[in-house]
Amino acid sequence: MVARGEIARFWSLESLHMVSADGGTESSALVDDNGSEEDFSYEDLCQANPRYLQPGGEQLAINELIGDGSVVCAEALWDHVTMDDQELGFKAGDVIQVLEASNKDWWWGRNEDKEAWFPASFVRLRVNQEELLENSSGAHGEEPDEDAGHGHHRHSENKHQMRTNVIREIMNTERVYIKHLKDICEGYIRQCRKHTGMFTVAQLATIFGNIEDIYKFQRKFLKDLEKQYNKEEPHLSEIGSCFLQHQEGFAIYSEYCNNHPGACLELAQLMKQGKYRHFFEACRLLQQMIDIAIDGFLLTPVQKICKYPLQLAELLKYTTQEHSDYNNIKAAYEAMKNVACLINERKRKLESIDKIARWQVSIVGWEGLDILDRSSELIHSGELTKITKQGKSQQRTFFLFDHQLVSCKKDLLRRDMLYYKGRMDMDEMELVDLEDGRDKDWNLSVKNAFKLVSKSSDEVHLFCAKKQEDKARWLQACADERRRVQEDQEMGMEISENQKKLAMLNAQKAGQGKSKGKRLPPGPPHQGLVPQQQVFALAEPKRKPSLFWHTFNSSRLSGSESRRPCSS
């Protein structure tokens, strides 16, 4: 963090105060479109919702729950694409059991049958953690309550409380979000416009996009939410109609999210100069904003639009069909899910190309076109045995991308080193599932096998998986690859040539000075670069904790082994 004395030497903080036309200091109170001030202050929000605003507050609460033996679950805001065995990959909406949260950026968790690190900013904690505990205890065959009528009444009360919890979270996070938007508009944009010698109009348009329009829209949205919020009995609140009334307005997020990659690149260039780092820190201190860098604040709209469907899904879960808001909540969930889906898809693509580029640079003996010339996403990877017509078997590691399947061979001594062995054009291949037994075309006995057959030539490739489950995953992955290619074409989802070139350039820079063939970790790149992955600036932290620390804490986590993973 920049020291206050250093900022003061850059300029006087008092020079940043806004002065009105009559010479008086401009009030920092936020005035809505009807001329009335908002009825909540930053201090009120801090007192009412400390875990939303205070850095580390949520992390502390999680560790207390885990320490007490509670099952803590989080839902993925968006996909986490990874080629690193030490990272936990998941898709938007997946449920992850949080096992360790001592590091604020990377948490240790379980998804299905794997435990690994994952970026904390990719997930949203479930509001009703206590329900998971009740479900767990109820799954051990405990005796039912003797008083069935009393139990039903208690269940009804519990459901009301669950709905109350979700409603309150929606309201609280919305108020905090408005505070963050206000800080961006008043704390950053307004000050930047005063310093025309530092920022051009074009630069400000690139960095901040249409966030002022989002701020104006969200204030109206929150105003309508407040009208529908039942303070005395929150579970009776009917907020679904607000989302439906404003669903067209949420379209403005598309422009912001599309602009965001360019915003982060422009900001990264400015941040290379000390005077800009000092300027933005001075703005943050003057506005009394929480300790998050400007790129983190600019990420909040992207996170917010992806959080809405998760919140609405949980609200729908605790809204009975008899509730007057049920149909509206259900429709609102579908509407916001569609909005977030497009944004998540673009984010995943942008993240993927950096990791794919770094992966290619780490492969020894790469031949032909860059992988990014045709592909922008890793679909699946794993080991398969490739069999020739002569019956010779070759153990290979395969990487399935959109449009192509790449074959690599592991080094016998250094198993983290991969050698390029070829690729197949998936657009020209047809998948053929094989039954266990003798293949009549090749006159070979096969098990867990499938073929890729060329549509235009006699080229045929035969593969065998170790287990039936592995084969099933590959068959599903091949189907997913064809589906995603088609969806990308229908949605016009393309990554620009400049973005691809930049990803390859950064990957090559990251590889300079490394010994040939040394495989680079597919985690975040060096700080000196401007990777596409950083277009969602807080999306993935700079580095993961060492496995040493997980081992060091294993004694405290040992109790978690006996807990069952949470279900979605």
What is the general shape?
globular
What is the gyration radius calculated from CA atoms?
Answer: 26 Å
Helix content: 40-55%
User: Using DSSP, what is the number of strands?
Assistant: 14
Q: Give the end-to-end Cα distance, rounded to a whole number of Å.
A: 39 Å
Average pLDDT, rounded to a whole number, is 78
Portion in beta strands? 5-15%
- Class of secondary structure makeup: alpha+beta
Distinct helical segment count: 17
Runs in which pLDDT lies below 50 for 5 or more consecutive residues are 1-43, 45-56, 132-144, 515-542, 547-568
Query: Taking strands numbered 1, 2, ... along the chain, how are they ordered across the largest sheet?
Result: 9-8-7-6-14-13-10
Main pleated sheet? 7 strands, antiparallel
Subcellular location: Cell projection, Ruffle membrane; Cytoplasm
Domain DH: 162-346
Organism: Microcebus murinus (Gray mouse lemur)
Pfam families: RhoGEF (PF00621), SH3_1 (PF00018), SOS1_NGEF_PH (PF22697)
Give a nutshell description of this structure.
This protein is of the alpha+beta class and 568 residues long.
Q: What would your notes on this structure say?
A:
Residues 377-483 form the PH domain. Keywords: Cell membrane, Cell projection, Cytoplasm, Guanine-nucleotide releasing factor, Membrane, SH3 domain. It is found in: Cell projection, Ruffle membrane; Cytoplasm. Residues 69-128 form the SH3 domain. The chain is an alpha+beta fold and 568 residues long. The two termini are 39 Å apart. A seven-stranded antiparallel β-sheet has the order 9-8-7-6-14-13-10. It has a five-stranded antiparallel β-sheet with strand order 4-3-2-1-5, with helices on one face. Strands 11-12 form a two-stranded antiparallel ribbon. It is built from 17 helices and 14 strands. The longest helix is centred in the N-terminal third of the chain and has 47 residues, at 148-194. The chain is globular. The protein is 46% helix and 14% strand. Strand 8 and strand 9 form a beta hairpin. Helix 6 packs antiparallel against helix 12 and helix 13 packs across helix 15.
